Amino acid sequence: MLSRVNGLSRHFTEDSLRRYLLERSVRQADGCLIVRGYGTRRGVYQKVAGRAWAHIAAYAAFVGGYDPALDVDHLCDARDCVEPTHLRQVSRAEICRTREQPSTCRNGHDREADESTGRYRRTCRACNRDGQRRWRERQAVEVALARAAYVPNPGESART
Ligand SMILES: [Zn+2]
Ligand SMILES: [Zn+2]
User: Domain HNH nuclease: where (predicted)?
Assistant: First the structure.
Protein backbone atom coordinates (compact mmCIF):
# COMPACT_ATOMS: atom_id res chain seq x y z
CA MET A 1 0.00 0.00 0.00
CA LEU A 2 2.72 2.53 0.97
CA SER A 3 4.66 1.54 -2.14
CA ARG A 4 2.12 3.56 -4.12
CA VAL A 5 3.24 6.79 -2.43
CA ASN A 6 5.67 8.47 -4.80
CA GLY A 7 9.08 9.27 -3.31
CA LEU A 8 8.36 7.75 0.10
CA SER A 9 11.45 6.28 1.74
CA ARG A 10 11.11 2.51 1.58
CA HIS A 11 11.97 1.76 5.19
CA PHE A 12 8.64 3.06 6.51
CA THR A 13 5.86 0.81 7.70
CA GLU A 14 2.35 2.22 8.16
CA ASP A 15 3.01 2.36 11.91
CA SER A 16 6.36 4.11 11.70
CA LEU A 17 5.04 6.52 9.07
CA ARG A 18 2.13 7.49 11.35
CA ARG A 19 4.54 8.10 14.24
CA TYR A 20 6.89 10.06 11.98
CA LEU A 21 4.08 12.32 10.74
CA LEU A 22 2.69 12.94 14.23
CA GLU A 23 6.14 13.78 15.61
CA ARG A 24 6.49 16.50 12.97
CA SER A 25 3.01 17.95 13.33
CA VAL A 26 1.36 20.55 15.50
CA ARG A 27 -2.37 20.60 16.21
CA GLN A 28 -3.92 24.02 15.65
CA ALA A 29 -6.98 25.54 17.28
CA ASP A 30 -8.94 25.14 14.03
CA GLY A 31 -8.33 21.37 14.10
CA CYS A 32 -5.66 21.28 11.40
CA LEU A 33 -2.62 19.11 12.00
CA ILE A 34 0.17 21.17 10.45
CA VAL A 35 3.22 19.19 9.43
CA ARG A 36 6.75 20.59 9.21
CA GLY A 37 8.50 19.50 6.03
CA TYR A 38 12.05 20.09 4.87
CA GLY A 39 11.49 23.57 3.51
CA THR A 40 11.06 26.79 5.47
CA ARG A 41 7.87 27.91 3.77
CA ARG A 42 4.66 27.16 5.65
CA GLY A 43 1.17 26.90 4.20
CA VAL A 44 2.36 25.03 1.12
CA TYR A 45 2.59 21.31 0.33
CA GLN A 46 5.35 19.76 2.44
CA LYS A 47 7.86 17.09 1.48
CA VAL A 48 8.72 14.51 4.14
CA ALA A 49 9.96 10.96 4.65
CA GLY A 50 12.30 10.88 1.68
CA ARG A 51 10.68 12.84 -1.13
CA ALA A 52 7.01 12.14 -0.44
CA TRP A 53 4.26 14.73 -0.20
CA ALA A 54 3.19 14.83 3.43
CA HIS A 55 -0.57 15.00 2.75
CA ILE A 56 -0.34 11.99 0.43
CA ALA A 57 1.78 10.02 2.91
CA ALA A 58 -0.75 10.95 5.62
CA TYR A 59 -3.65 9.80 3.46
CA ALA A 60 -1.96 6.46 2.82
CA ALA A 61 -0.94 5.98 6.47
CA PHE A 62 -4.05 7.22 8.30
CA VAL A 63 -6.93 6.83 5.84
CA GLY A 64 -5.71 4.00 3.62
CA GLY A 65 -6.74 2.92 0.17
CA TYR A 66 -4.66 5.63 -1.50
CA ASP A 67 -5.18 5.68 -5.28
CA PRO A 68 -2.19 7.31 -7.04
CA ALA A 69 -4.35 8.10 -10.08
CA LEU A 70 -6.38 10.57 -8.04
CA ASP A 71 -5.43 13.77 -6.19
CA VAL A 72 -5.57 14.11 -2.43
CA ASP A 73 -7.63 17.23 -1.66
CA HIS A 74 -7.70 19.32 1.50
CA LEU A 75 -11.19 20.08 2.79
CA CYS A 76 -9.58 22.74 5.04
CA ASP A 77 -7.48 24.44 2.31
CA ALA A 78 -4.36 24.23 4.51
CA ARG A 79 -1.91 22.53 2.20
CA ASP A 80 0.47 21.57 4.98
CA CYS A 81 -2.31 19.94 7.02
CA VAL A 82 -2.14 16.15 7.48
CA GLU A 83 -5.26 15.72 9.63
CA PRO A 84 -6.86 12.59 8.11
CA THR A 85 -10.42 13.90 8.41
CA HIS A 86 -9.40 16.98 6.38
CA LEU A 87 -8.08 14.87 3.51
CA ARG A 88 -10.04 13.17 0.81
CA GLN A 89 -9.66 11.57 -2.56
CA VAL A 90 -12.45 12.19 -5.01
CA SER A 91 -13.60 8.89 -6.47
CA ARG A 92 -13.83 8.46 -10.24
CA ALA A 93 -17.62 8.14 -9.95
CA GLU A 94 -17.77 11.56 -8.28
CA ILE A 95 -15.56 13.12 -10.93
CA CYS A 96 -17.89 11.77 -13.63
CA ARG A 97 -20.92 13.14 -11.81
CA THR A 98 -19.48 16.63 -11.56
CA ARG A 99 -18.59 16.54 -15.26
CA GLU A 100 -22.21 15.91 -16.20
CA GLN A 101 -23.87 19.12 -17.24
CA PRO A 102 -27.24 20.20 -15.88
CA SER A 103 -29.95 20.16 -18.56
CA THR A 104 -31.33 23.57 -17.66
CA CYS A 105 -29.69 26.95 -17.12
CA ARG A 106 -29.77 28.69 -13.75
CA ASN A 107 -33.06 30.33 -14.75
CA GLY A 108 -34.67 27.01 -15.63
CA HIS A 109 -34.55 27.26 -19.45
CA ASP A 110 -33.89 24.02 -21.31
CA ARG A 111 -30.34 24.21 -22.61
CA GLU A 112 -29.52 23.75 -26.27
CA ALA A 113 -26.95 21.27 -27.47
CA ASP A 114 -24.14 22.46 -29.68
CA GLU A 115 -24.20 20.15 -32.74
CA SER A 116 -20.44 20.39 -33.27
CA THR A 117 -19.47 19.18 -29.77
CA GLY A 118 -22.59 17.34 -28.62
CA ARG A 119 -22.39 19.33 -25.38
CA TYR A 120 -24.71 22.03 -24.12
CA ARG A 121 -24.06 25.59 -25.20
CA ARG A 122 -22.31 27.62 -22.53
CA THR A 123 -24.61 30.59 -22.89
CA CYS A 124 -28.39 30.36 -22.76
CA ARG A 125 -30.11 32.11 -25.65
CA ALA A 126 -33.33 32.63 -23.70
CA CYS A 127 -31.38 34.32 -20.88
CA ASN A 128 -29.48 36.40 -23.43
CA ARG A 129 -32.74 37.52 -25.02
CA ASP A 130 -34.20 38.44 -21.63
CA GLY A 131 -31.05 40.32 -20.73
CA GLN A 132 -31.13 42.32 -23.96
CA ARG A 133 -34.81 43.11 -23.54
CA ARG A 134 -34.20 44.41 -19.99
CA TRP A 135 -31.28 46.48 -21.27
CA ARG A 136 -33.44 48.05 -24.04
CA GLU A 137 -36.18 48.81 -21.53
CA ARG A 138 -33.68 50.51 -19.22
CA GLN A 139 -32.31 52.50 -22.14
CA ALA A 140 -35.83 53.57 -23.14
CA VAL A 141 -36.53 54.78 -19.61
CA GLU A 142 -33.26 56.71 -19.50
CA VAL A 143 -33.93 58.35 -22.86
CA ALA A 144 -37.43 59.33 -21.72
CA LEU A 145 -36.05 60.81 -18.48
CA ALA A 146 -33.36 62.70 -20.38
CA ARG A 147 -35.94 64.14 -22.78
CA ALA A 148 -38.15 65.20 -19.88
CA ALA A 149 -35.19 66.99 -18.27
CA TYR A 150 -34.42 68.88 -21.48
CA VAL A 151 -37.93 70.30 -21.89
CA PRO A 152 -37.25 74.02 -21.44
CA ASN A 153 -39.24 75.98 -18.91
CA PRO A 154 -41.99 77.67 -20.98
CA GLY A 155 -41.60 80.95 -19.12
CA GLU A 156 -37.84 81.12 -19.76
CA SER A 157 -38.11 80.17 -23.40
CA ALA A 158 -40.67 82.94 -23.92
CA ARG A 159 -38.17 85.53 -22.62
CA THR A 160 -35.17 84.39 -24.74
ZN1 LIG B 1 -6.72 20.82 8.01
ZN1 LIG C 1 -31.63 30.63 -19.47
Answer: 53-94
How far apart (Å, rounded) are the C-alpha atoms in residues 149 and 160? 19
Angstrom distances, CA of residue 93 to CA of 7, 97, 139, 150: 28, 6, 48, 64
Give the ligand at the shortest distance from the Cα of 82.
1
Tell which of 75, 97, 119 closes a domain: 97
- Residue 80 Cα to ligand 2 midpoint, Å, equals 41
Same domain as 89, residue 10: yes
Q: Which ligand has an atom closest to residue 104 CA?
A: 2
pTM attached to this predicted model: 0.59
**What's the CA-to-centroid distance between 125 and ligand 2, angstroms?**
7
In-domain check, residue 158: no
CA 100 to ligand 1 center in whole angstroms: 29
How far is it, in rounded angstroms, from Cα 86 to Cα 25?
Answer: 14
User: How many domains, in total, are found in the chain?
Assistant: 2
Q: Per-residue pLDDT tens for 34-66?
A: 999 988 888 999 999 999 999 999 999 999 999
Domain that holds residue 89: 2-97
